[in-house]
Specification:
The protein is built from four helices and no strands. It is mostly helical and 109 residues long. The chain has one domain.
Length: 109
Amino acid sequence: MNPQTLSVALFPVFFGMVIVWFVLIKLLFNRLERAHPQKYEAMGRPSLFLRNHIAGSWATLKFLVGREHRALNDRYLSKLSDAMLIFFAVYLLLFFGLFIGLAGQAPAA
């Protein structure tokens, strides 16, 4: 499959994954705000759009990668956070795999 066909075929997949990610983030923020307001405050009250800033995004990523949900003893939050971490890893692998694959097929100058 040529690079152009591959990128056109995978665009809807990546677009769909971004939409799913936004839904997962919204679920995470809602759960933290309702069930764990102290943690939500400590993270800077992150939001999908309104209070979206680099510190909030970094705090969210740190929460997921650092598996900080474990200390909160919330089964739903733990399942959601673990699923999000796996989803994020799969997304990165696909994205960088596509990038490396397309870069490797680029004609030499």
